[in-house]
Amino acid sequence: MRRSGRSLWQLFSLILAMFVVFVLGFLSADLWADPASHPSEALHKLRSVVSTPEKLDPTQAFQSVLSEIETHYYGTPPPVDKLTYTSIDGMLGAIGDPYTRFMDPDAFRRMQEDTSGSFTGIGALLEDAPGGARIVRPLPNSPAQKAGIKAGDVIIAVDGKSLERMALDEAVRLIRGPRYTKVELTIKREGEPAPLKFVLQRDLVESPTVDVYLEDTENKIYRIWLQNFSEKAPVLLDRALTEIKQNGGRALILDLRANPGGLLDASIEVVSRFVEGDKVVVSVVGRQGLLEKRNTLRGRYRDLQIPVVVLMNSGSASASEIVAGALRDHKVAVLIGEDSFGKGLVQTVIPTSQNTAVAITTAKYLTPNGTDLNAKMVDGKRVGGLKPDIAVQQPEDWRIGDEDRSKDAQLQKALEVLRERIQARKVGNGTLRASADNER
């Protein structure tokens, strides 16, 4: 038994030795595989790889990778600007903040157009829709209106490119373009058996900002639909308020639904029309604490002396939330509708060249009473934003811009509240538009 056990042990030792020799030979083949290199050079390269790396030089690393792609990639690499923009997007994506973003020349131009209040395109308000982008309404005298495009039409392709699974912002980029150039839209229209095709010539369009509606003729209840906070918003709001006062308006609905925001300065101007005195509109808080408090501006107060209701929904964001929060905190208005979007972060736009920029989140907004406007992700859902004083959900078949006011449950609730406030004895009918685009 002892001799047999010793023989087995010797056999096992021999197999183990052969295995070790095989592994060493395999590894040495990897180390010295390059016949053009001396063993000492290859070993030096290996040691340099496995040794503790020096501090990364990001610029040098990027330039090195870009050079290697241009030199060794088997196909034709994308243009350098596309590679650069994509790498910047990847870098900013690592931050995990959806509002910190890079703007290439197209995106930077669109941002400048949106805040200035004019752009070149077809002239239509758009919203997300299954399979494309739905027309909320064509703007007066726009290429879209002149071509016969209607509210409710769904754009499913632009110049033959499908909008299926495409973000609304990307669809807008395709639709807009240089003035007097042409764009082909493929549209799905309810009641039409096949898609329709329209060829439009892009033109300069005034971005919609303020529309005025007389919602109750008997009781003179007006609604101002404020659609964004561009540079022109305060002036157009002044025109609307003057018109309402001259016509004996007794109550006002400020409609901020689907208003994505815009310029902070414009929101300060708007609040200043409704809040008297030197009052806080919004506090800006950064990493190190309070950065500044923005107050109402002198000489802007309109002294309307009528009750005000603010309508908001999940599309009310940023500057809209600042205005709604300030008007509620200063007890000027009651908020009716749905929870707002919850974009309470401040982006500083920093040009990185003549035609590109980066928007970096640098702070957050708080209402005068200290409410944090920014929503948080909890179990995969957005939680936060402003809560309405009176919550009202819309019917599923309602769309903003729908001319059938009876479907608009939020508007009907606002009218009910205001009629009680002014002690109205009789319910009046409304008219669709009291002024057409305020002479724009």
Question: What is the strand and helix layout of this fold?
Answer:
Elements: H1 2-31, H2 39-50, H3 58-72, H4 80-93, E1 101-103, H5 105-116, E2 118-121, E3 124-129, E4 132-138, H6 143-147, E5 154-158, E6 161-162, H7 168-175, E7 182-188, E8 196-201, E9 203-206, E10 210-216, E11 221-226, H8 233-246, E12 251-255, H9 264-274, E13 280-286, E14 289-295, E15 308-312, H10 319-329, E16 333-337, E17 345-351, E18 357-366, E19 376-378, E20 381-383, E21 390-391, H11 409-421, E22 431-435
Parallel strand pairs: 11-12, 12-15, 15-16, 16-21
Antiparallel strand pairs: 1-18, 2-9, 3-4, 4-5, 5-6, 5-7, 7-8, 10-11, 10-22, 13-14, 13-18, 17-18, 19-20
Helix pairs in contact: 8-9, 9-10
